[in-house]
């Protein structure tokens, strides 16, 4: 039976530089930032993330002008952290976070997406550290993440949303549950990325239904199950897996996004749902048609009284 969907639930759909093949602040294989802003607006999105810090202009006044001229609003910034390494990395982490948080706040956004560091290099596959955390590292990860949530809220008025990610220590259902159970809901929410969670064997609908109060933000993407099976069998790192096409255009993969969005609506909270179509590197003319089709598909997932 389909659950009753509260009419007050609001899902705000956006996109991100990632959907244009942007992974780095500066890379000759990526489209210029002006083209990204032009095309994301042309594709029908009103919300965007900042992407890698330095890709979009970092001067708040200029970025505000550029986004406003295109009818765009920023939903979140993104930071990368290695907080399981303990207090010794705090100062370095905060130096990375502070500038991004300041720009995010200046743009009127309220969320900071926190991505854990990779245990293996996402390009070369070089193993950087053990893929399994020790109990002490888990304690450092949870305590330091709570500290980050507190500091970001107090200094910038932002809420952190931690992003489970392939090839990190917060990835599988077991590790995500362990992380959520060990952190303060008042300080730490989750950015559920449907593609990454499926990549790591998780069920997004089950996670939303089990930890609904922790879901603070969504990233929408799908994986190709056949490519994923080969990637897992061959132990392919995440970057080369993306180059193989493991993240595919909706609705051609898993998980089905309609049930995910229905479960999210049933939480009766406002949520951002940001499309992240991982496809680095990609031809410069590929992203816009994909983004248009994805936006139309997501509109078809809406319900009367709660359009997407």
TrEMBL record:
This is Inosose dehydratase (EC). It comes from the Bacteria. Residues 37-301 form the Xylose isomerase-like TIM barrel domain. InterPro entries: IolE/XylAMocC-like (IPR050312), Xyl_isomerase-like_sf (IPR036237), Xyl_isomerase-like_TIM-brl (IPR013022). One of its GO terms (molecular function) is myo-inosose-2 dehydratase activity. Keywords: Lyase. It comes from Streptomyces globisporus. Its EC number is 4.2.1.44.
């Amino acid at each position: 039976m389909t659950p009753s969907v509260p009419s007050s639930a609001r899902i705000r759909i956006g996109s991100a530089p990632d959907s244009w093949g942007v992974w780095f602040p500066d890379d000759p294989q990526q489209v210029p930032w002006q083209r990204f802003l032009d095309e994301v607006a042309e594709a029908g999105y009103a919300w965007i993330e900042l992407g890698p810090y330095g890709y979009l202009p970092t001067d708040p006044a200029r970025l505000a002008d550029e986004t406003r001229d295109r009818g765009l609003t920023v939903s979140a910034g993104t930071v990368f952290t290695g907080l399981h390494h303990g207090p010794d990395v705090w100062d370095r982490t905060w130096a990375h976070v502070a500038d991004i948080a300041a720009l995010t706040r200046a743009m009127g956004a309220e969320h900071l997406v926190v991505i854990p560091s990779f245990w293996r290099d996402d390009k070369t596959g070089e193993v950087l550290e053990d893929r399994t955390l020790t109990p002490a590292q888990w304690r450092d990860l949870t305590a330091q993440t709570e500290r980050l949530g507190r500091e970001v809220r107090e200094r910038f008025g932002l809420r952190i949303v931690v992003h489970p990610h392939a090839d990190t220590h917060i990835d599988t259902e077991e590790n995500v549950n362990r992380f959520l159970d060990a952190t303060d809901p008042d300080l730490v929410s989750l950015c559920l990325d449907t593609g990454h969670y499926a990549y790591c064997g998780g069920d997004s609908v089950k996670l939303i239904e089990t930890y609904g109060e922790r879901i603070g933000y969504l990233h929408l993407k799908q994986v190709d199950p056949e490519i994923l099976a080969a990637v897992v069998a061959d132990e392919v790192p995440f970057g080369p897996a993306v180059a193989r096409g493991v993240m595919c255009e909706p609705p051609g993969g898993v998980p089905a996004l309609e049930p995910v969005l229905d479960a999210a609506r049933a939480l009766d909270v406002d949520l951002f749902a940001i499309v992240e179509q991982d496809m680095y590197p990609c031809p410069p003319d590929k992203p816009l048609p994909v983004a248009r089709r994805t936006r139309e598909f997501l509109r078809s997932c809406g319900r009367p009284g709660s359009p997407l």
